[in-house]
């Protein structure tokens, strides 16, 4: 007697499509292979995006932020993303070296719809490229040049369900572990968490760019 799969695992695309049904025509028509003029305002207004990559050692999704329009629209098929100062893990960049495929999710404060962009990226470090994106005299170490393959908006259901932009939903920072508390715990007290937290605001201000 065959074993019963009580979890009802879905293992084929056919089963998945049977479960969810047909794609609505607007969901198909909204996708284009370039940065259409109707989509430009979302990129230009977004101060925050999530960059997703895949590489030989796994996946990565990293937040990217700067003043609105920080991801530059070079032309209808090209985006330029400066890689600002961080923690030097450079997980995304390592991934791009081995697999150039990337995905971007653009978010605009107060707006329910998000914008999704898929494509491939290359890492550039030419002086002229970097100088274009200097802030306060500090140029990024590299930029990403993304060649766009698809663009479409995501409806606002997830943002509405999350209540993401509702002021009443903002979480007080002291209700979650601080960066220092996390490091103290994971380092088994090798890192002085209190000292780390005291120094963090000034370190962030001094090393933002």
Automatic annotation (TrEMBL):
Which InterPro entries does the record associate with it?
Answer: Pyridox_Oxase_FMN-dep, Pyridox_Oxase_N, Split_barrel_FMN-bd
Q: Would you tell me the protein name for this molecule?
A: Pyridoxamine 5'-phosphate oxidase family protein
Q: Which residues form the Pyridoxamine 5'-phosphate oxidase N-terminal domain?
A: 39-155
What is the scientific name of the source organism? Answer: Aureimonas populi
